[in-house]
Amino acid sequence: MTDEQRPLPLRKRTAESLFGQRILTLDSALDDEIGTQLCSQLVMLSDDDPVADIALWINSPGGSVPAMLAITDIMRLIPNDVITVNLGMAYSAGQFLLCSGTRGKRFITPHAKVLLHQGSAGIGGYAPDIELQADDLRHVRDTVLTIIAEQTGHTREKIFDDSLRDHVFTASESVDYGFVDHIVTDIAQIRPLSPAATGFEVSHA
């Protein structure tokens, strides 16, 4: 059997099938490589159809802040609405991406959880370096808190206070807080298109 004939691994086949339905997945910790991939996929799907919705399904413990902000920037730059869905856990960076979806199109499954916190970062080195790192961390923290406040309708001060300690939200609490708009009751709510509706469908014999 040649490499071309060899079946793709199930995980890759699943990802390609969902991509053909305009569904992207973040199903692990977010690192810079995954962030670049998701940014690229958002642009590709937008180029394919600048009107149709794109879905981002999230089940993630969090991860890279630069990657998280890069994805959010692309979500805001493309003309498409982005449906965000918490399938199980949207913690830290996952929470940020979840609430960054298009208003009215942010979803959570009934037993999923959301974690709000400020995260942590190690600082070390000589005193001037520590001061520079601290300034940068404060700037990033304030940027993140401001965006969460905009997306949830709360003040930045409230987000700051609520994120000082790990704060876990149930599905209904996530709706009340403003992270999401709806609890999923029908799979059709979180599926933008059928597989045949986009030019990116991939079939395997």
From TrEMBL:
The record's InterPro entries line, in alphabetical order, gives: ClpP (IPR001907), ClpP/crotonase-like_dom_sf (IPR029045), ClpP/TepA (IPR023562)
Give the GO molecular function terms: ATP binding; ATP-dependent peptidase activity; ATPase binding; serine-type endopeptidase activity
The processes (GO biological process) annotated in the record are: protein quality control for misfolded or incompletely synthesized proteins
For this UniProt record, give its keywords in alphabetical order, as a comma-separated list: ATP-binding, Cytoplasm, Hydrolase, Nucleotide-binding, Protease, Serine protease
Q: Does the keyword Protease apply?
A: yes
What would be one Pfam family of this protein? CLP_protease
- Gene Ontology terms: cellular component: endopeptidase Clp complex
| Record bears the keyword ATP-binding | yes
Source domain of life: Bacteria
Protein family (similarity comment): Belongs to the peptidase S14 family.
Protein name (Swiss-Prot/TrEMBL): ATP-dependent Clp protease proteolytic subunit
Q: Which gene codes for it?
A: clpP
